[in-house]
Amino acid sequence: MHTYSTGDKIFAKVNSLTSIETELPFSYYSLPYCKPDEGIKKSAENLGELLMGDQIDNSPYRFRMNVNESVYLCTTPPLSEHGVKLLKQRTRDLYQVNMILDNLPVMRYATQNGIKIQWTRDLYQVNNNNEDYIINHLKFTVLVHEYEGRGVEIIGTGEEGMGVISEGDKKVASGYEIVGFEVVPCSVKYDSETMIKLHKYDNITSPSCPLELEKSQIIRQQERVSFTYEVEFVKSDVRWPSRWDAYLKMEGARVHWFSILNSLMVIFFLAGIVFVIFLRTMRRDLTRYEELDKEAQAQMNEELSGWKLVVCDVF
């Protein structure tokens, strides 16, 4: 559990790009996204993330606890033919961005058939009328729960011995816990000539998500894409141990039947190989034992030769 004070810097992380259509993930920075100033670094925090095959990297998305702001991130160079082709291909394959804040995956809400659905992936791009539009503005909502330190008994080795943390120390232990991480993605067409004059993390006017495609950022060759984001901190009554409850109630996940079938085929194939090896070994062992029995029988017949064959008649 991490406890933050007002104004503390918190950096979100990015995971690999995944799709519900294909099984192959790609690195987040394989596409022309804004990169952190200190360079790309692996940011996996535990063994489980490595075993799951996650490619978690640092990101330039910086938040300050309890500071609501809308900031400029960066503007890409003019998109090349290869970059446009790559973006369009990822769009057609329905690849999506996965982000993490304080070990919580970002959650996106959508309405389908009048039902509110929760997703743990930020929709990466929209596609309509054979044109592709990139999502370049993210509206984050960070749910925080105010944590108050409690009096804790401590045992010392000095003369004072056992004592209780004072009220002043309680304030030091107090802070805010992150209990939710939500996002609303938007595609906004910016004036690139105006945006390139800004510096990273400069404050901007919060844009409204346009409903018209003419005001959205299209993917086109020699087009510059400006990335921005805004963050709002909202106090929540959800406590830190219960922050994963919302993820357990998610709907809309798609079963990867191809992946399941592929895994079963691999299991049966390997089991068949093991069975064939086991059968050949058992057959070879049984053959060897039969040969040993034949040799023992032949040896016994050789011993019953000569006078031993008429011993009963003699005596």
From TrEMBL:
<dbReference type="GO" id="GO:0072657">
    <property type="term" value="P:protein localization to membrane"/>
</dbReference>
<protein>
    <recommendedName>
        <fullName>Transmembrane 9 superfamily member</fullName>
    </recommendedName>
</protein>
<comment type="similarity">
    <text>Belongs to the nonaspanin (TM9SF) (TC 9.A.2) family.</text>
</comment>
<dbReference type="GO" id="GO:0000139">
    <property type="term" value="C:Golgi membrane"/>
</dbReference>
<dbReference type="Pfam" id="PF02990">
    <property type="entry name" value="EMP70"/>
</dbReference>
<keyword id="KW-0812">Transmembrane</keyword>
<dbReference type="GO" id="GO:0010008">
    <property type="term" value="C:endosome membrane"/>
</dbReference>
<keyword id="KW-0333">Golgi apparatus</keyword>
<keyword id="KW-1133">Transmembrane helix</keyword>
<feature type="transmembrane region" description="Helical">
    <location>
        <begin position="257"/>
        <end position="279"/>
    </location>
</feature>
<keyword id="KW-0472">Membrane</keyword>
<dbReference type="InterPro" id="IPR004240">
    <property type="entry name" value="EMP70"/>
</dbReference>
<keyword id="KW-0967">Endosome</keyword>
<keyword id="KW-0732">Signal</keyword>
